[in-house]
Every structure is written in C-alpha cells, then in structure tokens.
Amino acid sequence: MKFGHFDDAQREYVITTPLTPYPWINYLGNEKFFSLISNTAGGYAFYTDARLRRLTRYRYNDIPLDYNGRYFYINDNGTVWNPGFKPMNTALDSYECHHGFGYTRFLSSKNGLKADTLYMVPNGENCEVEQLTLTNESLETKKISVT
Question: Is the pLDDT of residue 40 over 70?
Fold first, then answer.
C-alpha cells in the first residue's frame, strides 16, 4: 500500500492517508527547543533535554496508538473532527500531511470546511508555533467552534 510520496519541488514528504502502520515522525527544532510531531499530530516538545525537560506528554509505548499530541477539535454543526485525524478518528473528506524541513502542515477537509494547520519551531525562539486556518468552501452557513 502506498502512504505518500516525495515532493521534490517543495522538499517535503507528503503523507496521503492518516492510516499508516506506525506514526511517521518529523523533528522540529532549533538550538535548545525541540518538538516531534507525527502524521496524526501526535508527539511532544522539550527544552534542551528530552527526558528531564519534557513540556508535553507522549508515551512511546503507546505506539502505534499515537493519541497524545497537539490537537484542534473542530465542531462543525455537531460533527467534531481534527485536521490530523486522531484522536477523533472522524473520517475526513481529504487529508494530507506535509513533513518538511522544520515544519509540518496538515491540509484536510470535512463537509466543505477546509483546515490548513501549520506546526513549526522558529529559529532562535524557545517555542512551537501552531497556526490553524479554516476556509468554508461550501455554500451553507456554518456554526463552527474550535478548541
């Protein structure tokens, strides 16, 4: 089964299904702050030491479950989903995970609502930036909440 492909022009690996056999991880980081993110938005962040200075929770013995991470819960008229698929496991109309050098981007959609989610660790900063952009591509008015 094919799970994705290399995009040489963008210098990224594009994962086209969240149903990979194991989490496919991308490493984000700079001199002191580091983050690992999977193709379903699982992972963790740490400052200088992965064992003693972990900022978010992640258990490797949960693999392949991959349920601890950074999630946006989108409630679209009662349909709750996450752009990275887990932990809701709501079937998505479209899904792509782009693992690039220093960033991961999810492009997904459900019921005419498109989500573009970017995760990155800026150079020289001790933080992770998470950006969510929602676009209503349907003709209907939507009542949306995000947590």
Answer: yes
Structure-block tokens of residue 129: 């930036």
Other beta carbons within 10 Å of 133: 9
Instruction: Tell whether the torsion through CA atoms of 80, 81, 87 and 88 is positive or negative.
Output: positive
* CA 111 distance to own-chain centroid: 19
CB-based burial, 69-78: b 16+ in 10 Å, e otherwise: bbbbebebee
User: Model pTM?
Assistant: 0.89
SS3 62: helix
pLDDT of residue 58: 55
Label the pairing between strands 113-120 and 129-136. Answer: antiparallel
**26 neighbors 112 (Cβ within 8 angstroms):** no
